[in-house]
Amino acid sequence: MTAARQRILVIDDEPGITNLVTSILQHEGYEVCQANTSPDIASALNENRFALVILDLMMPGLSGWDVYGQIRQDEKHRDVPVIILSARIREKEIQDALQVRRVSDYITKPFSVEDFVGRVSRAMQA
After folding, report:
1. What is the distance of C-alpha 52 from the center of its chain?
2. Please, which contacts does 114-119 make with residues 24 or more away whose CB atoms are closer than 8 Å?
3. What is the longest distance spanned by two Cα atoms in the chain?
4. DSSP state for residue 3 in the 8-state scheme
């Protein structure tokens, strides 16, 4: 599957972050959907299939982990790789995410564009 055909869902309550991440990913040739609110998230997951989900943890209403749980319970998205993109930088939380919850990757904000693109590419190939 080429990058142009790979659809990524970016979930963050801050439109500035989703716009930035979308711009980076579109520049790399990916098709990107954004979700900033709980209804947006539900709609995107119901209406689309994704090759990757990029998920913030700190959001009002549903937490990122709540959303992650919904993704893993949904047969259509159960096996989709999820990258956490978060300002939470505590090593214990990062290790829990990677080892216990089994997310594909955990990227902390702020991030370098080159590192981000490389990690997205690796997650898509896994």
Report:
1. 7
2. 116/21, 116/24, 117/24, 117/28, 119/83
3. 36
4. G
DSSP-derived pairing of the beta strands 82-86 and 7-11: unpaired
pLDDT digits (tens, 9 = 90+) for 74-96: 888 999 999 999 988 888 888 88
Asked if residues 54 and 8 have their Cβ atoms less than 8 Å apart, the reply is: yes
The pTM assigned to this predicted structure is: 0.91
Distances (CA, A) of 21 to 12, 24, 95, 102, 111: 10, 5, 24, 22, 11
Whats the size of the chain, residue-wise? 126
H or E stretch at 84? strand 82-86
Determine the Cα–Cα distance for residues 47 and 30; give it in Å rounded to an integer: 18
Let me know: does 98 contact 106? Beta carbons within 8 Å.
yes
Query: What gap in Å lies between CA 106 and CA 86, rounded to an integer?
Result: 8
Closest CA to 116 of 33, 50, 54, 41: 54
